[in-house]
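TOPIC: backbone geometry
CONTENTS: sequence, structure tokens:
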Amino acid sequence: MTTAINNYDALGLSQPVPAATQQSLGQEDFLKLMTKQMQSQDPFKPMDSAQFLGQIAQFSTVSGIQSLNSGFASLNDSLTANQALQGASLVGRTVQVPGDTLALGTSGSVAATTMLPSSGTLTATVRNAAGAIVREIDLGSQAAGSVDVRWDGNTDAGERAAAGNYTVTAQLTAADGKQQALTTEIVTPVTAVLLGAQGLQLQVEGGRTVALSAVSSIR
């Protein structure tokens, strides 16, 4: 009568966990298998030293990778916490971020900035949500470089504009009369810091959120 031999029992290991719950051998199982292999080898035909060293190297590699993964996880947690602290310190500070939307309150002014590739006459235009022009700001002749555009919140008629979001565009007119549209960045206070799946996000006036990495300047 033939008796079925369980290979795991012969090696002194417990029954394997079903494939649904265990997909690979762990460090402990790997070490037990290697130790059992050494104990069961034929003394007249010992395991080839190259194979033995290869298995030790594999075990060391597995152990090293797991330690490395653990180290990276700890480093990531540390960096995330440090980034959160840095972001929290920005609440109440004024930052410069890409965009063209100005959040005007019931009082005070709002500002943007633009980069001039060359000297010329700079004009900024503020529009409401419907696209109608609210204010045209003539900044006169400007040299190449960064120029701030500040809007006091008044319309061309001299009245205070309603609180809300407005868009600002900038245009450069060169000495030869050639006009060029320029990109703008918004100068705005940070109202809150959000930490989520997308990383650290800064909430600025108007409810808009931007990534910390998008901040080009802190004022």
Observations:
- Residues 198 and 211 are 8 Å apart (CA to CA).
- The radius of gyration is 33 Å.
- The longest strand covers residues 184-196.
- Helices lie at 7-10, 27-40, 49-88.
